[in-house]
Write a structure and sequence with these properties.
The protein is α+β, with helices and mostly antiparallel strands. It has two domains: 41 residues, no CATH class; 126 residues, no CATH class. Helices cover 28% and strands 19% of the residues. It is built from five helices and nine strands; from the N terminus they run E-E-E-E-H-E-E-E-E-H-H-H-H-E. A five-stranded antiparallel β-sheet has the order 7-6-5-4-8. It has a four-stranded antiparallel β-sheet with strand order 3-1-2-9. 25% of the residues are buried. The chain binds zinc ion (ZN).
């Protein structure tokens, strides 16, 4: 999946009916509600970019669909891949090929920044942890030694040194940190698909 992923922003504005938000990838020439030329009329709410949930931050959990990109391929939270970034935002992730460093497939991902009290040691700990034999390709198991085990394993490994404040069990990490971000991302994906299918999408109220 090396095709470039779309980063087109979604614009939002209101023209003639308060509360009826108009979303589009490009501001249309005419208002989809009243048909008036937008260039020559007042807007209730001037266009702004809808904040994108996608970013790649340092010292973060990073999440993307296992195959493809969020905007094109995301279906539900059951098919996700997770990794962890170093201080430069370089992703370390574990799959059947072993640990990957800085793979280009993380162009469009959701970040969950982690609070840590000793960021200085983060990169060295992540490097050491990634080199451990536990994460050789032959040890990979889709059900119980996978990308999430790698991430939680790192958080546990580095608990004493980098002092990260995150749950250290898989279930809690998913429920508290990952799923809320996925809900947010899914809303954006739905909106993006609506606006790319039509010239503009108008909210009900
Ligand atoms: Zn209008």
């Amino acid at each position: 999946m090396n095709a470039p992923v779309s980063t087109e922003p979604i614009f939002c504005f209101e023209h003639c009916q308060k509360g009826r938000k108009i979303y589009a990838l490009q501001i249309p020439g005419e208002c989809p509600l009243c048909g008036v030329l937008l260039a020559s009329s007042e807007l209730i709410l001037p266009p702004f970019r809808v904040p994108s949930p996608f970013s790649r931050s340092p010292h973060s959990l990073v999440i993307r669909p296992t195959i493809g990109s969020f905007l094109r391929d995301y279906k539900n939270a059951r098919d996700l891949h997770i990794g962890i970034t170093n201080s430069k935002g370089l992703v370390h992730d574990y799959n059947e090929k072993g640990v990957n460093f800085g793979s280009s497939s993380w162009e469009q991902c959701v970040s969950v920044p982690l609070q840590c009290r000793n960021a200085r040691r983060w990169d060295a700990e992540l490097r050491n942890f990634s080199a451990h034999g536990d994460w050789f390709p032959q040890n990979y198991s889709e059900s119980d030694h996978n990308c999430l085990d790698f991430v939680v394993g790192f958080l546990r490994h580095a608990e004493a040194t980098v002092r990260v404040s995150a749950p250290l069990c898989k279930e809690q990490l998913c429920a508290e940190l990952i799923l809320p971000r996925m809900t947010q991302a899914a809303k954006y994906v739905t909106l993006y698909r609506r606006v790319s299918a039509e010239t503009a999408y108008v909210s009900a109220s």
